[in-house]
Amino acid sequence: MKISKFKFEDKSLEWRLEELSINRLTLLVGASGVGKTQILRALMQLKRITEGASLNGIAWLVEFETLDNKKYTWQGEFENKGIAIFFEDGENDEDEEIKKNRPKIVFEKLSLNGKVIVNRTADQILFNEKPTVKLSLQESIISLLKEEDLVKPAYDGLRKLHFSDQSNSVNASRGFSFSFLNASSLAKKYQTLSKIQESELETPLKLFFLSKVDKKTFTTIKQRFIDIFPQVEDVKVAPLETKEKDMPDLLKDYPFVQIKEKSVKNWISQNRISSGMYRTLIQLSELYLCSEGTIFLIDEFENSLGINCINELTNDILASRRQIQFILTSHHPYIIDAISFNDWKLVTRNAGVIKTHDISKFNIGKSKHSAFMQLVQLEEYQTGSEQI
Amino acid sequence: MNIYFLVEGKHTEKKVYPKWLSILIPELTRVDSFDLVEQNNYYIFSGNGYPSLLNNHLRNCIEDINAIGIYNYFVICLDSDDQDISNCEQEIIEFIQKENIILNENTKFEIIVQSKCFETWFLGNRKIFKSNPKNDFLRDCVTFFNVKRNDPELMEKPNNFDGSTSIFHSTYLQELLKERNVSYSKRNPQGVTEKYFLNELIKRTEDSTHIQSFKYFIDFCLEISTQIKQ
């Protein structure tokens, strides 16, 4: 799936993103504080809405195309009940009173290939021009009608939004939330690369099953990793070999990512691998193991990556031939220069209005200076504000 | 008359020079891209510090200038830091020769050395000086070197100051301006860009032999102004 256009507004927090057009690879550049991360988070809100979340004061418009070329436009708006904090994160609340108080959708529309398929007002939903039975006022039509053939591809597509927060990715993904009691039945479930790709497993677990069922792809990833870190001799995903007697049973069978370095006797386990190395391995693995049509949102792509892996990972992203979309943010000269300036969007913010600008309007590309150096000259890049 | 400025700093120079140029050579108008110069325009490019200015950007500047073909001057503005001015100039000239970078013959080359750094010039404003400041650090600065009486360009840094001489100069300046309630930061040097501030610096060069590297810049502007009027 590929998103081509996105517009967003949070009426309760009084900010909005003006229409952003998105390429297969889009790099958001701009001063700190202009809202690059906010854009990524706003995209992730779409996913939450498709999952049934009621988000106070949010209005959105998104255009996207699924893997089988269905072009959807989805827009809508929740009522604004004031400051948002009281309404957040209440989705799992069973209390009927609280449920009833959640912000309602005031308008929503889903079109497929230019034809409106669902049209909703505050009190009625028309699906294929016919009113539906009474449905939740707080849930989006994609969530409510996801079993319908016309809506399902949109639901499946938007679920492919994947936020990769590099500030704590290392720690977050190191613990497995996985019970190994049914390991053998799971192993049966993931017997091919595509089954692993389409699963919702965490990447280290995907790697684990891959190492069992598709040694060729596993070796490709491993080899690519060793290319970047020549001191590494081998990579495996397996339970730890430890002599510690007090290790809980539960952990004994857990597969952990481990690497073997040249001239170092013991395997290095996941929690002791350097954060840059671990991230590189996970990012590389994701390129091969993510579900087809994934949209990666990667904030501060350079975080914890040394110059040895930044170059390689950026190149791998640029070279990926799978149907994956990337929306990245970065401040790093190498990353910015490695990505064609036609794929940059310069982000500015004036008060509550976030705008993204095509680089073509700034005359970049004519000079002998690197594109990054030309970018640095712009007042918009230095100050974060649009120069009016 | 078209001029290409390559300046060392990221923020201060790009804010101060345009403001000063608008006062000193009002005929010159700034353009946002190097290829937009026509007549009486200038373009200013930040080299993101030294030595990256030299190693990474000087060649590209000259290639851009040569490609456009209508620049009368290529001006490099940089801090001398702890070097003396002639060494600093020499280093650039040698670099250009060694790298075999050739500036077209219609464009004159000018080096404006800010000795020891851009902020040193601002310290030349006697009006901002306070001989009895409230702040302890500033009092120590004044005891160490009185920038009203002596030439700021000759000021080194105290032995117990950990940063470089340039950082000392800029800290001294910031403390002085704070004491005077003048708004100033490297990013937002508003206060020093004002006309009265510039006039004070010019006055200093007229009734003393201080801040000579600043005087060199002023003389250069006068020369440009005369050429435009001819």
**Low-pLDDT windows of residues of chain A:** 169-177
- Strand-residue proportion of chain B: 5-15%
**N- and C-termini, Cα separation of chain B:** 11 Å
The mean pLDDT of chain B is: 94
Strand content of chain A: 25-35%
Structural class of chain B: alpha/beta
Q: Helix segment count of chain A?
A: 15
Gyration radius of chain B, rounded: 18 Å
Following the backbone from N to C, one meets helices and strands of chain B in this order, namely: EHEEHEHEHHHHHH
Tell me the structural class of chain A. alpha/beta
Q: List the strand order in the largest sheet of chain B.
A: 2-3-1-4-5
Helix content of chain B: 40-55%
**Side-by-side strand order of the widest sheet of chain A:** 9-8-7-6-5-4-1-2-17-16-3-15-14-10
How many β-strand stretches of chain B?
5
Helical proportion of chain A, percent range: 25-40%
Radius of gyration of chain A: 23 Å
Globally, the shape of chain A reads globular
